[in-house]
Amino acid sequence: MINDAVAAPLRKRILRASGWTLIQNGASLSLRLFGNLLLTRLLTPEAFGLMAVIQALVVALAHLSDVGISQNIVVHRRGDDPDFLNTVWTVQILRGVLILIASAACAVGIFLLEQAGWFRPGTVYTDPQLPYVIVAFFFYVLILGFETTKVQQARRNMQLEQITMIELMSQAAALIVMLILATTFRNVWALVAGSLVAATLRVVAGHLILSGPRNRIMWDPSAWTDILSFGKWIFLSSVMGFLLVSGDRILLGAIVDSTVLGVYSIAVLLLGVLYSTFYAIIGSVVFPTLSEVFRNHPNDLRQVHRRFQLQADVALFGLAGFLFVAGPAIVDLLYDDRYREAGTMLAALSLGLIGARSSISEQGYLAMGQVRYQAAANFCRVAVLCLGLPLGFALYGIDGALVALILTQYAGWPVTIRFAMRNGLFQPGGLLIGPPLFIAGAALGWLGRSAMLLVMQ
Predict the structure, then answer these.
(1) Which family is annotated (predicted)?
(2) Which sequence spans correspond to the domains of the chain?
């Protein structure tokens, strides 16, 4: 067992990091939601449909070039070594340049395929603005390539106060720019400009404000070997993982028009409020904690994992029940009639929240260096997404596509359960307490829906 002299400071850091993560995500998501409510009144759904495809492409190229840079700093024994960190920073910059070049190639490819008539008329890929917006937006990724490694060092040590301030400052500035440009020009370029402002402020502030060694260009062969050794499994997982994050919009963009995709993006945005908060806590608290416990107190990993899993199950089952009932009323309260169908989509997609309970064990993959399990789980998810979404749409339209998206969230469970059982981490209790928690969440959702209907009358 972890003795009290070690456990007390660790608990304190966990609680502090959790608090700052919740503050950051609460404020960040409030800004996003507030901004989205204003921007949906200034811009058409088509603009959000365009950005949905572009953001999906960003995630795609980012995942296709991912070698686990940030995770490496958190788990690696040389995570505080300046030579290792400077090599990581150099790799990060080169990656940003390569992604920008790849984005230009994608833009040219989309333009040529559209001219050749490969895309269905009226879909997002036939919009004449798309190739130009793609190239402009991808400067966002290039700028972020220069972000200091001091950010990941702070995450390794669960010191999140200054990171929170930087994130919120850059997001607020970006929102102001978006609103000014959207009011003036009323097109998708307002969203692009805001994203570039956010990236620039985030990078500059990180270098100036965060404590730690300054980055410089450097190439340490041994550090590159370590990065590549860990990153090869991250890369294999990310090759498939990009479809899990944005494949829905990439695939839907080819079979529905930009209006339907824009409405769907609103449902995803609202559900993303919960997913982003959950995964932020996972990445900022659960992953560093499991990594530290595995490095220093491996016999206590099961106990720490069990506590995190129980907390995740309570949150995920309860929230799924709440949104399943209250989702349509939330959309009706926040948006005008053009986005009403997003409420039905939100209610259905909320069932996928339960599937995210496997994320706790997946942090165990990374903490224990067994990243191959992550690649296997993502392969299962990608197979369900790529086969199920087009088939579901062909058979039952958008409803069939939504069913496939829900099932995708559960497709990695067999791999996760196998890993957990082999490493003594299997915790079936959440599945037993899950149904009562879902029902309790649904009851709260009914009360919330009733209150929102009264407000709207």
Answers:
(1) Belongs to the polysaccharide synthase family.
(2) 1-239, 255-457
